[in-house]
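Hello Y.,

Per our agreement to keep a running log of every chain we model this quarter, I'm adding this entry. I've kept the format consistent with earlier entries: sequence first, then predicted structure.
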Amino acid sequence: MHQGRPKIAIIDPNTLAVVGLKQMLQNVMPIMTIDTFGSMTEFEANHPENYFHYFVAMNIVLENRQFFTEHRRQTIVLTLSLDGGSQLSEFHSICINVPEQQLVHSLLALQQHAHPHGKNMPPMPHILQQKVLTDREIEVMALIVQGLINKEIADRLNISLTTVITHRKNIMDKLGMKSVSALTIYAVMHGYVDINKI
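Predicted structure for the entry above:
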């Protein structure tokens, strides 16, 4: 069924939402290929059976309920409300109308729930398994993703504020990341931080 890199489909007519979600999913699951579709017709024309998961706008699920009910375990419904009553109870759902950090947390929680310890997931590419940060940088990164500011990190680790800032810059440079959200994903996916602490 899944040849080469496993694939995820995002099916949503909202281009802006799709672009943002695709970027986040690529950070959460770098081993996946992510394809986007603006409609069910476009998705169906591209071999739906080749996809590991479907992230789908609620209106598309409602209009094509039979297909998605048959693929319930693969389907994640994208909702605009945290209100449980508005979600389709038989499906996993993610509210996309929340701050970025909360959405990242939801994606990570979903990934860990569905694939604890990488179950049913292909192995990470060797380059992504390598330890690239020093032990001190890992400590600093863990505190950053838990929401501590530079001064709090300096106090906690008994190092100067300048040292924290240097570590922070080195972490971002080594990992090629530009946001705390991307750093959070990296830290959780590599087991440096428990998802419940962010």
